[in-house]
Design brief:
3-stranded antiparallel beta sheet, alpha+beta, OB fold (Dihydrolipoamide Acetyltransferase, E2P), 6-stranded antiparallel beta sheet, about 130 residues, about 25% helix
């Protein structure tokens, strides 16, 4: 089974969110980075941009694909992980800790409450592994 961050909550398109005081860190899951393959480029939004839940806010390019990354929570970008611009491979090594994409100020705490827990997300991705 792929790794999950126990304190994160998960969105249906394989993104995670972790609450840090009054803000949230967002990123992609270990499952997503495995599907992408070797990540070689990350395009991040500008600080101050606002996105709705489900709206694409970043692009990740890998040896297999280029993929839009969706917002698990509506909010305004207050920081980006600049390390990923020069070292996108961090996402393959540690998608939960050093591999966060952006920090946001969320506009809806209700969206946070509706995201999947780590246990629910493990069951959700388990469907993909149990197909014959």
């Amino acid at each position: 089974m792929k790794k999950v961050h126990p304190l994160a909550k998960y969105y249906e398109t394989n993104e995670w969110a972790v609450q840090k005081e009054t803000h949230f860190l967002l990123g992609i899951t270990d499952f997503a980075q495995t599907v992408f393959g070797d990540i070689n480029y990350v395009a991040l939004p500008k600080i101050g941009e606002t996105f709705a839940q489900g709206q694409p806010y970043a692009v990740i390019e890998s040896t297999k694909t280029a993929t839009d990354i969706s917002m698990p929570l509506s909010g305004t970008i207050i920081a980006i992980n600049e390390q990923l611009i020069t070292h996108p491979e961090i996402l393959n090594k540690t998608p939960y800790i050093a591999g966060w994409l952006v920090k946001i100020e969320a506009t809806s705490i209700d969206e946070w409450k509706e995201l999947m827990t780590a246990e629910q997300y493990q069951r959700y991705i388990g469907v993909f592994f149990n197909k014959s």
